[in-house]
Every structure is written in C-alpha cells, then in structure tokens.
Amino acid sequence: MEYDLNLVINRCRKDDEYVHLSYLCLLKKDNERMNAKKVENEYDEQTVRDIVDWVTHAELPQEVKLGDGEYICDMKRYVEANICDIRDHYPDPFYNPSITRLIKLKEIVGQ
User: Fold this and answer.
1) Which of 80, 72, 59, 77 is nearest to 104 (CA)?
2) Which of 4, 21, 37, 82 makes an SS bond possible with 98, Cβ 3.0 to 4.6 Å?
C-alpha cells in the first residue's frame, strides 16, 4: 500500500493529532521498499521473449532442485505451465512470478 507522506502529515496537523516521527519514517521506508520491489519485478518485453526462447530451446533435465524448498520433478510440465501463464497474461504484473521462476531456472541449470 502506498502512502502519501505529505497527506499523512497534513491530515495529522489538521486533526491536531500527535504523530511520532519514527512512525512517519517507517511509512517512508515501507513505501520506498515497495516501490523498489515493483521496479525489481517488472520485465520488459525483450527480457520475456529471451527467457521464453531460452527455455523452449534449452536441453533441460527431467528433474532439478532449485532451492531448499523447490524441487521440480516434471520439468516439461513446469515449463509449459509457466510459458502458458506468460503467454496468456503478460504484461499483467500478477503473473511476473512465472517469469521470475524461469529466470531462476536458467540461473540454476545454466546457459
């Protein structure tokens, strides 16, 4: 949730409420962190094309462990599911994790 800090400060001044400075700092840090995360998880069209092209033509193992809690036991189904999400919904940011998963797969499996 984004906060307009000036609006919060002005609102509090109008209502004669006491606003603790540390609370406003937390709001600002939270807002900055969320904005950074938005930028971090936005993918341009060329990046999406490149990763889909790579995963389509790469020789992938049947199974792979991506991390401590991530194990892919059916690579073909995993790749197809993520590509379908991307194809059907890009550029909807709700489906960006599909792109992120394929990028992580590329990092683990290799280029």
Assistant:
1) 72
2) 82
Are the beta carbons of 109 and 102 closer than 8 angstroms? no
Question: Is the bond into 91 cis (omega within 30 degrees of 0)?
Answer: yes
CA distance readout (Å), 74 to 80, 81, 105: 10, 11, 13
User: From CA 88, how far away is CA 94, in angstroms rounded?
Assistant: 12
Q: What's the whole-model pTM score?
A: 0.62
What would the pLDDT profile of 33-89 be if each residue is shown by its tens digit? 655 555 455 789 999 999 999 999 999 999 999 888 889 999 999 999 999 999 999
- The domain limits of the chain are 5-40, 45-109
- Helix or strand (DSSP H, E) at 58: none
DSSP 8-state assignment for residue 43: -
For residue 67, what pLDDT is reported?
A: 83
Tokens found for residue 85:
């999400």
Band (pLDDT 50/70/90 cuts) for residue 26 is low
